[in-house]
Amino acid sequence: MADHERRREYVRKSLSYRARIIADDQSWTYPCEIFDVSVGGARLAIYCPPQTPLPQQFMLQLSEVTHTNRHCEVAWRQGNEVGVRFVRDAHLVPPT
Predict the structure, then answer these.
(1) 29 vs 10, 54, 61, 78, 86, CA distance in Å?
(2) Do residues 56 and 74 lie in contact, with contact meaning Cβ atoms separated by under 8 Å?
(3) Of the candidates 9, 18, 59, 91, which lies 20 to 30 Å from 68 by C-alpha distance?
(4) pLDDT interval class at 93 (50, 70, 90)
């Protein structure tokens, strides 16, 4: 097992799944592919020019039919590959 795999907080599952990333204000959208996913995040290939600026947070649309989305925060970017952490929406977190 590689060192980076031992350091992961969550187990990742490899897959190839088409999705979309969408601006929080819905002003833009790009197709993407999910290469691997875990409870805490995912590794994506975003199909846009490599130098296209991405905001630190955006929505990952998993299904257009059921409108299943995950709010994401960029953890790293290398070319068209992006690692994201899934972020809980503030309105969904119960008050403490």
Answers:
(1) 28, 11, 10, 19, 18
(2) yes
(3) 9
(4) very low
Nearest to 46 by CA among 81, 71, 17: 81
Q: CA geometry: angle at 87 spanning 84 and 90, to 5°?
A: 155
Q: Contact at 8 Å (CB) between 46 and 21?
A: yes
58 within 8 A of 82, measured Cβ to Cβ: no
At 48, which amino acid appears? C
Tokens found for residue 5? 């795999």
In the three-class reduction of DSSP (H, G, I as helix; E, B as strand; rest coil), residue 51 is classed as: coil
Residue 77 DSSP SS3: strand
For the domain covering 12-90, report its CATH number: 2.40.10.220
Token pair, residue 65, equals 């039919």
pLDDT of residue 7: 55
Q: Where are the domains of the chain?
A: 12-90
Of 66, 12, 7, the closest CA to residue 44 belongs to: 12
